[in-house]
């Protein structure tokens, strides 16, 4: 199980997506709704930080994998993300870290070891690469996605205090097919190919905690995965802090960056 989970963790890391830093959101007056509140945050050189725990379990075994994400906004979208795996017994050292910008992704750590004298590896350079702030496939920096997901809410009730604000938690379900239609991040994860058959009908259970300012402070998603005769449950639990913090995720310089052809072999 642990060998399979480590492979999955690498896949999750390499499929990357986002984070940010924080503090100014609390002073703002509440806006008319979550989508509008989110849109007001997508300003130049502002961002948010997200801590996410992914857990896989089946009968008799359970493993968790953690990462920290910083997202930078600008012009109504995510312009950069800095994603770091949190070291654990299931993540080899040095823990991977990814910087993603439009058209480019850089990495460091055991998954993409750089040659001597270099700090980063330019792991991907493709026009289709885009940074996202997502958890469980829900595009958390897309107002239209947020509005569409909340429209499937089946119930709401008082939540706890997160990031210094009391929250209301909404919960519901939607299928992978429905999520594909409303979430650009989910579409990118699937290479632009819509889910079909039983996979499209698979249900994602979700919960969103919204603060008094209508910004997301926590998101929890879960869905089942069948591998042969094994039933694996996937759970993602992410907490967002510091909406509106000044953020500057810098592009690595050429002097500190190696290209794909310069990668050295990973240590045995």
Describe this structure in words.
The chain is an alpha+beta fold and 268 residues long. The chain has six helices and 14 strands. The strands form two sheets. A twelve-stranded mixed β-sheet has the order 9-10-11-12-13-1-2-3-4-5-6-14. β2 and β3 form a beta hairpin. α2 packs antiparallel against α3. The protein starts with a helix and ends in a 10-residue tail after the last strand. The N terminus is likely disordered.
How are the SSEs placed, and which strands pair?
Elements: H1 2-14, H2 34-41, E1 46-58, E2 61-74, E3 77-85, E4 97-101, E5 104-108, E6 120-125, E7 134-135, E8 138-139, H3 143-150, E9 153-162, E10 165-175, H4 176-182, H5 184-189, H6 197-201, E11 203-211, E12 216-227, E13 230-241, E14 257-258
Parallel strand pairs: 6-14
Antiparallel strand pairs: 1-2, 1-13, 2-3, 3-4, 4-5, 5-6, 7-8, 9-10, 10-11, 11-12, 12-13
Helix pairs in contact: 2-3
Short description:
The chain has 268 residues and is an alpha+beta fold. It has a single domain, classed as outer membrane lipoprotein receptor (LolB), chain A. The protein contains six helices and 14 strands.
Q: Give the mean pLDDT.
A: 86
Q: Give the assembly state of these chains.
A: single chain
Number of domains: 1
Main sheet: strand order: 9-10-11-12-13-1-2-3-4-5-6-14
Low-confidence stretches: 1-30
The helix/strand series, from N terminus to C terminus, equals HHEEEEEEEEHEEHHHEEEE
- Beta-strand portion reads 35-45%
Q: Radius of gyration, Cα only, in angstroms?
A: 18 Å
How many helical stretches?
A: 6
Name the CATH class: Mainly Beta
Q: What global shape is seen?
A: globular
